[in-house]
Each structure stands twice: as structure tokens, then as C-alpha cells.
Design goal:
360 residues; alpha/beta; Rossmann fold; Glutathione S-transferase Yfyf (Class Pi), Chain A, domain 2; 2 domains; six-stranded antiparallel β-sheet; 10 helices; globular
């Protein structure tokens, strides 16, 4: 997969700019707050329909403007593609693929595949399970549109079940809770089974990447925290049983306490739980290993590498890991931001200043 160009109109601090990329390493160089990260944000927005930095779409539109737009043209195995995202100050965004408006955001999934990594991604390892579930959900949604739809459906059913639990109407709860349990378990099974498939692949590739980054000094292992049955019917029956067993607790708390929305990934290095006992350096290396594993999983499942977006990552790595990372990323298209690029690896260096690409 290869991005040819990105056009930004009234996006963040960009007024009207077109940026062209080559198929290997592209470096966005410049001082802080010039717009380097904004460009990566625009690319990831076109990949998953959401910004990696904010949930408020209005923030993406340039100050004092009412309309913003991002256009990306790229090549993939299936042919040439163009994605256009229109941002409005007073309504939801609109998306076109090859000039045709889409009705559901799920139609965007899997068109442009991208992996985003920044120093803030350390939260993937050290923060709450929400971050690791989000990590799985973004990947799986790009692999499989059905996963995206199942996840949305699951969340809607979950909200309805939670509303019922909060209602305090015991008669209504007893009469209808089993209906919600049945619907919830059906979507939950699909989600869990797909996550388990992903974890099995992640185990292999993340361990290999971690060995590479640490010169074989540390062994990284992953496991899924939650139900791990791979038989759908057995899994469903266990979920239904858990819903029944946790009903009293759920009623007291006013929300559903079991299911894939509560699951997690456990990350262990040399038999140590990295989230709780690992050093910051170990946590950072684990996060990077997971991102490198993602690249290989995309290649395995889709037949081509995604675009890798690296936002100010080099400054957070020691020299050895920096060189190892750059050796790997020379095999596919990468957009990398930094304040100064002085490495020996050839790159298409684009200088960014005040929301513009300036000539050297």
C-alpha cells in the first residue's frame, strides 16, 4: 500500500496544501507546533474515520473556518483509490470513496490501512484495559468490516441492557433481561473469537520483534484476559451463565460487568507483568514490538503492508533501537516526523513550517 498524495484544506493549521510521498521512508522535519503531527493525523483519519488525538471533529477544522477537507490518493493491490473526508462545524463529517459518498463509516474500514505510533502510545502498555481493547478493535475493524459492525451492534445492545439495569423496574428486568442477554452473547462471541485469532498472531510476531529489539535479551509473551473458548456454542453458554451469575452485582452497580468490553491483554516480559512491574524502557519496547507485530499481521491477512505513521518516535528510543527500527521500516512506506533528520538512511525529507511544506 502506498500513499501518493495528501491534500489538506482548512485542516488544523493547514490552509491549502498538497503533499507528495515516495514509496519508502518519508520524513516530515520541522520545529514543534508547525503541523507535522497534523499531517499524520489527517492520514489516520482517512484510515479509520477518527482522529487518534481527539473525539471532537470541530477541532480538526482550522480556526475561524466552517469547512475542512482531507483528500488522499493511494495505491493498493486492488487498484488506485481516493478518499475524501469533509469536516463541518455544524454537522457530522461526510466521506467519499472514489467520488462516491458512503452511508456508513464501516464502509471506510480496510480501504486505507495505517498504523499510528507516537510516544503517547506508551499508554497501550501501561494504562487501563480500554487502551488494549481499542488496539485490538482498530486492527480487527481494518481487517474485517463485519467486526466493525458487530462491535457497534454490541455496544448498542450493551447500552440498552445497562439502561434496563439502571431502571430499577424489577418486573421489567426479569421479563426482558434474558432477551438482551441472548442478543449480547451473540455479538460477544463474534468479537471474542476474532480477538483470540488476533492474539494468536500477535503472540508470534510480537515475540519475534521483541527479541530483535532487545538482542534476544528479553522474551515477550501475550495472553487474552477473558473467556478463551474457541468453540462458539460453548463460549455462548458460558457468557449466558456469567450474565445470570452477575445479575445481582450488575443491578447494584447499574452496568454490565462481564463480556468483551471488560477484557484485556496481559503483557509479560521474562515472566514479569510489564504493566505493573516493568520499567518505562521495557514498556516502550513492548509498545514498539506490538506495532511492529501489527505490520506483519496486516501483511499476513491482507497481502500487503499498511502505511506506518511514526510521530516523534526516534527521540524516545536509544541509538540501538532507533537503528533497528529504521532498518525494518525501509521495506514499506513510512511517514515519520522529527525536529531534525540526520541519519544515514535515505529518505524523502519534507520540511514543514507553519502548516506548509517549504523547499530546502
Amino acid at each position: 500500500m502506498e500513499i501518493k498524495s495528501v491534500q489538506l484544506k482548512n485542516f488544523r493549521n493547514y490552509t491549502n496544501e498538497v503533499v507528495f510521498f515516495n514509496k519508502n521512508l518519508n520524513v516530515l522535519e520541522g520545529k514543534n507546533a508547525q503541523g507535522k503531527t497534523n499531517l499524520l493525523e489527517a492520514v489516520f483519519l482517512c484510515a479509520i474515520g477518527k482522529s487518534p488525538r481527539t473525539n471532537k471533529e470541530k477541532e480538526l477544522i482550522k480556526w475561524n473556518e466552517n469547512l475542512g477537507k482531507v483528500t488522499i490518493e493511494f495505491n493498493k493491490i486492488s487498484g488506485n483509490k481516493k478518499i475524501e473526508i469533509y469536516l463541518f462545524s455544524n454537522q457530522n463529517k461526510a466521506v467519499k470513496i472514489n467520488g462516491v459518498p458512503i452511508k456508513k463509516l464501516g464502509e471506510l474500514m480496510g480501504e486505507l490501512n495505517a498504523i499510528y505510533f507516537s510516544p503517547d502510545e506508551l499508554k497501550l502498555v501501561k494504562d487501563s484495559p480500554d487502551e488494549r481493547r481499542r488496539f485490538m478493535d482498530i486492527d480487527l475493524s481494518q481487517f474485517n468490516k463485519n467486526y466493525f459492525y458487530a462491535l457497534n451492534k454490541y455496544n448498542k445492545i450493551l447500552n440498552q441492557r445497562n439502561k434496563l439495569l439502571k431502571s430499577g423496574n424489577e418486573n421489567s428486568i426479569k421479563e426482558t433481561i434474558s432477551i438482551w442477554n441472548e442478543q449480547l452473547s451473540e455479538q460477544a462471541c463474534f468479537i471474542i473469537l476474532k480477538r483470540l485469532e488476533l492474539i494468536e498472531q500477535l503472540k508470534v510476531f510480537a515475540k519475534k520483534a521483541h527479541f530483535y529489539l532487545t538482542d534476544n535479551a528479553e522474551e515477550m509473551n501475550l495472553s487474552y484476559v477473558g473467556l478463551t473458548d474457541t468453540n462458539k456454542e460453548t463460549l455462548k453458554q458460558k457468557l449466558l451463565k456469567l450474565y445470570d451469575e452477575s445479575l445481582e452485582k450488575d443491578l447494584n452497580l447499574g452496568y454490565t460487568t462481564v463480556g468483551p468490553h471488560r477484557d484485556d491483554i496481559k503483557i509479560v516480559v521474562n515472566n514479569i507483568d510489564v504493566r505493573h512491574f516493568g520499567s518505562q524502557g521495557q514498556q516502550r519496547t513492548c509498545a514498539l514490538s506490538l506495532k511492529l507485530a501489527e505490520l506483519e499481521i496486516f501483511k499476513t491477512n491482507l497481502g500487503e503492508y499498511p502505511v506506518l505513521l511514526l510521530d516523534d518516535v526516534l527521540s524516545e528510543l536509544d541509538k540501538t533501537r532507533r537503528e533497528k527500527l529504521l532498518t525494518i521500516i525501509n521495506n514499506f512506506q513510512t511517514l515519520l516526523t522529527c525536529t531534525e533528520y540526520n541519519l544515514n538512511i535515505p529518505a524523502n525529507v519534507l520540511k514543514v513550517k507553519s502548516g506548509s511544506i517549504v523547499k530546502n
